[in-house]
Amino acid sequence: DRSRGLGDVYKRQVLSNPLGNVFQKQLTNRYNHPLLINFLTFLLLSVFCIIPAIQVRWLELPFEFWKYCILAGIVGATGNGFLVKALQCGDLSVLGPINSYKSVVGIIVGIFLLGEIPNLWGIAGMSLIVYGSYYVLDTMDEHFSLALLKRKEIQYRIWAMVLTAIEAVFIKKIILYSSTTISFIVWCWFGAIFSFALLFAFKVHLVKEFKRIKIRDLSSYFYLVLCIGTMQYTTNYVFDHMEVGYALALFQLSTIVSIFLGYRIFKEENITKKLIGSVIMVAGSVMIILLK
Hints:
The protein is an all-alpha fold.
């Protein structure tokens, strides 16, 4: 029953993540500012968290809990800001697979902060996931080369990947000091605080940007909040039952969904080679699932 429950939660995470990326890209295509999208997502989620937060005994939580909340809020809000910015100028079917490297970053950070040491099969599975990304990135004009790093969307996506991988480790720490629900609440609240600070740091003209939001955008914001909320809560649940590095690797199954949605909704090209790369990534994920 526990394995079945974890599997159901995992399926929701795999679907909600790329669907959330679709709504983020749609909103940026309609000239909504990426940092404003980031802030409003956290803000609306924070409002929904008010009622369950009333029942939490906040004063009983230790200092270390609050320390990791602040750290997770900083890197999480910044990382999500970079992600939305990357989706503004890049292809969903390319930027999604780059996230496969997130598991590697998560493992490295997890070794030092959580003491989670991967076995040989885990390392082999991660290597296969990274290798699969070669086929996806090779569809770009620069192919799989250092020249890719000069592209703004790739730079933004790499920063988003690194920061959210570090955030994942901090979230695991928060869960260890509290619970899945409490960690989700503080993720929303601290994310809203620091994403709001980013608006001022980058001198975003709030009145002007709010005026850009049209009536038709409201449904996209609603579904975006629903997807991101589902994604993060299920992510926290999986972190509570699995090592961070392995969980991040398994989440890369959403790569196939990202490629399919990029092709169907945004008419992105070179679908065959991207799918080959994603299948290799799935093989790495299956290796981790079966041989952990």
